[in-house]
Amino acid sequence: MKITALFVLKCNATTTTDGSDPLILANATDVSQFGYFQRSSVREFIVFIARTVAKRTPQGQRQSVQHEEYKVHAYNRNGLCALGVMDDHYPVRSAFSLLNKVMDEYQKSFGESWRTVDKDSTQSWPFLDEALIKFQDPHEADKLLKIQKDLDETKIILHQTIESVLARGEKLDSLVEKSSDLSAASQMFYKQAKQTNQCCTVL
Amino acid sequence: MASAFRDRTSEFRSVTETLKKKIGAPTPPPLPNQPENAPSSTDSPVPNSRSEFNRKASRIGLGIHDTSQKIARLAQLAKKSSIFNDPIVEIQEMTAVIKNEITALNAALSDLQTIQNMEIADGMYSEDRVVHSNAVCDDLKSRLMGATKKLQDVLTTRTENIKAHENRKQIFSKNTSRENPFQHHPKPAHVPPPWSNSLNPSEDLQQQSALTSNGVPVGNQLRRRLAVDNAPTPQMEMSMVQQVVPHQDNYAQSRATALHSVESTITELSGIFTHLATMVAQQGELAIRIDDNMEETLANVDGAHSSLLRHLNRISSNRWLLIKIFAILIFFLMIFIFFVA
C-alpha cells in the first residue's frame, strides 16, 4: 500500500498532438525501497513514465495505467495534470481523491502562474513531500474509506455493548429474584421478632 | 426425534370408557348406550382438533431440530474455512436456507398459538389441557430462540474469521505483489476477462463476491466494502481511448456505491442504538424493582432489630421483673405446700 511518487505536470492541449513532453511543475518521489545505487536510475525512469502517461491523458479525464507492478493514476484537468505512481493495492478511488486534493492545493498556492512555465521546475514543493508521507495509508486520503472503517469498528463495538447489556439484564434478573427472597426472609424475621417480644410484654 | 410428544389419547380414551362402565353399571343397560353414543360423537371432533394441535406442534419441533442441525453444520463449515478454500457459496446458501426456515418456523409457531387461543376460547376444555398447550408453546418458542442465538454466534465467528483472513492476506499479498505482475506481463490479452469478472463491487458481510475465486490478489482490497475498480489493460503503446470513458463512470459509480454503503451502515447503527436504548430502559425498570425490594427489606430488618433491642432492654435491667418472678414462684410453692400438708 505504497505511494512511490507524486507529480504535478503541465500538459497543454498541444502536447498530445505535437509530441512535446509535458512539463513537471512539482515532484516528490520515495525510492527508499530500492538499493542505493539504483535510486537515481529508478527516479529518472519514474519521471519518464510520468511524462508519457500525462502526455496521453486527455483533458478532463482520469486514467489508470498498469506498469509492471505499479499503477500510475493520472488526472488531467484544464491542462494541469496530477499524477501518482502507486502499487497495485492502493485503492483507485483513494488515489484519485488524493490527486484531486493535490491539484486543488496546487491551484490554491500557485494560482495560475504555472501556465507560463516553459521548462521543468526543480523547486520542491513541501506540501507534496508531506502528502507523499502522509497519504501512504489510503485511509488518510479517502475520507469515505476512513468513515467506512470507523463505522465498521463502531458497529463491532456496539455489538459487544449489546451483548454486555444482555448479560447485565440477566444479572439484574437474578438480583431481582434474590432481593425479593431477601425481603420475604426479612419479613419472616420481623414477624418472629415481634412474636418473641409479645410473649414477654404480658408479664 | 420422531415426534416431540407421545400421543396417549388411545390410553386415555380406554380409561374413560372403563370408568364410565363402572359408573354406568348400576343404571339399566340400554341407557349407557345412548349417552355413550352422544359423547363419542362429540368426542370425535375433539380428538381431531387436539391431535391437530399436537401434530402441528410435533411438526414445528421437527423443523426446529432440523434447523439446529443445519446450524451446527454451518458452524463447522465456518470454523474450518481457511484462507484458500473458502466454501463461500455453500455458506451463503446454507445461511439463506436457515434464515428462511427460521422465518417459516416463526410463522408456524404463531399459527399454533392462535389455534391454542381458539381452543381455549371454546371453553370446553380442562385446565390441564390449557396448561399443557401453554407449556408446549413456551418450549417450542424457547427452542427456536436458542437456535437463532446459535445462528447469530456462528455468523459472528464467521465474520471474525473473514476479517482475520483478510488481514493475513493483506500481509502476505504485500510480499507476493512483486511476483504477480510478472504473470500479467506475458499475457496481456487474457488480463481483461479475469478483471472484468472481479469488477463486482464487494458487498456486505453475508455475500462475499467472487474476488477470491481467481486466487490472485489482483485488486483485492482491505475492506469488503471497497468497490474494486480495476484499470484497463496495461501497455503504454495501446490506445486507451475506448476504455477511459467507462473508467470515468466506474469512478463515479464506485463513489456512489461507497456512499450508499456508508449510508446503510449509518442506518444500521441508528437501529442498534434504538435497540440498545430500549433494552437499557427495560433494565432500568428492573433496577427500580430491586431498589424497592431492598428498601422493604431494610425496613423489615430495622423493625425487627428495634423490637429485639426493646426486648433485650426490658429483660436485662429489670429488677422489678425478677422480684415478680420470684414472688410468683414462692406463691405457687406456698399453695403447693398448704394443699399437701
Structural notes for this entry:
The complex is a heterodimer of chains A (203) and B (341). Chain A is an alpha+beta fold and 203 residues long. Chain A has one domain (3-167): Longin domain (Beta-Lactamase, 2-Layer Sandwich). Chain A contains 6 helices and 5 strands. In chain A, strands 2-1-5-4-3 form a 5-stranded antiparallel beta sheet, sandwiched between helices. In chain A, strand 4 (70-77) and strand 5 form a beta hairpin. The radius of gyration of chain A is 34 Å and the shape is rod-shaped. The model of chain A has no long low-confidence stretch (mean pLDDT 82). Chain B is an all-alpha fold and 341 residues long. In chain B, 77% of the residues lie in helices and 0% in strands. In chain B, helix 3 packs antiparallel against helix 4, helix 3 runs parallel beside helix 5 (127-176) and helix 4 (88-122) runs antiparallel to helix 5 (127-176). Chain B starts with 8 loop residues before the first helix and ends with a helix. The model of chain B is unreliable at 27-45 and 176-242 (pLDDT under 50). The interface between A and B is large, with 60 and 73 residues.
Features of the shown structure:
heterodimer; A: 203 residues; alpha+beta; Beta-Lactamase; five-stranded antiparallel beta sheet; 6 helices; 5 strands; rod-shaped; B: 341 residues; mainly alpha; Methane Monooxygenase Hydroxylase, Chain G, domain 1; 77% helix; flat; membrane (chain B); T_SNARE_dom (chain B); Syntaxin-5_N (chain B)
What would a concise description of this structure say?
The complex is a heterodimer of chains A (203) and B (341). Chain A has 203 residues and is an alpha+beta fold.
Produce the secondary structure layout.
The complex is a heterodimer of chains A (203) and B (341).
Chain A: E1 3-10, H1 13-18, E2 23-29, H2 39-55, E3 62-67, E4 70-77, E5 80-87, H3 92-110, H4 126-134, H5 138-141, H6 143-201
Antiparallel strand pairs in A: 1-2, 1-5, 3-4, 4-5
Chain B: H1 9-24, H2 30-43, H3 45-80, H4 88-122, H5 127-176, H6 179-184, H7 192-197, H8 241-316, H9 319-340
Helix pairs in contact in B: 3-4, 3-5, 4-5
